Task: inverse folding
């Protein structure tokens, strides 16, 4: 941590580079710890005052505690419409993209795919798949590989306006009725309740 803080003060803001540097110096843990610290340092810089608290770790005073989103929250931000992002969320995504160009690329590809889903723009799928194949974002390439396994169904889902959502909802309701009565009533009563639920 002292090394990262010293490099931060020297102007190095690249989390991946910092991780590689400390790994060469014997750091034996994962990159996620470094990413959290770098995100916290970024938030402290954005705060403007650069103030610190009495919070210490390893004899080093850390910046004010910042809330770093979980992986699930970050994934939700990737899918959220850009016009609905708050200024803090936009700043966080900008910092992520600055720290790692692969994440920036993954964000753009995610936004493009979400746009295709929302706008039923299946005609753009082939072009999007080519973009993904040329990208360095391994997670997006894995996602695209899964889509290619059933490409015709994916294309239909991105093109057709109808869905089986209402049917799935009705099936869920019937299963709920059935499970609530399991082992407690005769078939006749179950039949009446199922017909009543429809």
Result:
């Amino acid at each position: 941590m002292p090394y990262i803080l010293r490099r931060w003060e020297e102007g190095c803001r690249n989390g991946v580079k910092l991780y590689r540097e400390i790994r060469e110096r014997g750091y034996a843990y994962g990159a996620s710890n470094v990413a959290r610290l770098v995100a916290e340092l970024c938030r402290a810089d954005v705060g403007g005052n650069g103030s610190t608290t009495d919070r210490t770790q390893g004899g080093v005073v850390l910046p004010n505690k910042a809330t770093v989103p979980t992986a699930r929250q970050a994934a939700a931000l990737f899918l959220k419409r850009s016009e609905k992002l708050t200024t803090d969320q936009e700043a966080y995504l900008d910092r992520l993209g600055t720290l790692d160009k692969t994440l920036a690329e993954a964000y753009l590809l995610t936004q493009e795919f979400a746009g295709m889903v929302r706008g039923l723009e299946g005609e753009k799928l082939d072009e999007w798949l080519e973009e993904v194949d040329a990208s360095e974002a391994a997670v997006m390439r894995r996602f695209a590989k899964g889509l290619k396994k059933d490409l015709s169904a994916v294309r239909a889902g991105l093109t057709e306006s109808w869905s089986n959502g209402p049917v799935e909802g009705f099936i869920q309701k019937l299963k709920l009725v059935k499970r609530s009565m399991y082992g407690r009533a005769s078939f006749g009563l179950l039949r009446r309740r199922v017909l009543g639920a429809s």
Notes: Residues 28 and 36 are 16 Å apart (CA to CA). Confidence is low (pLDDT under 50) at residues 48-65.
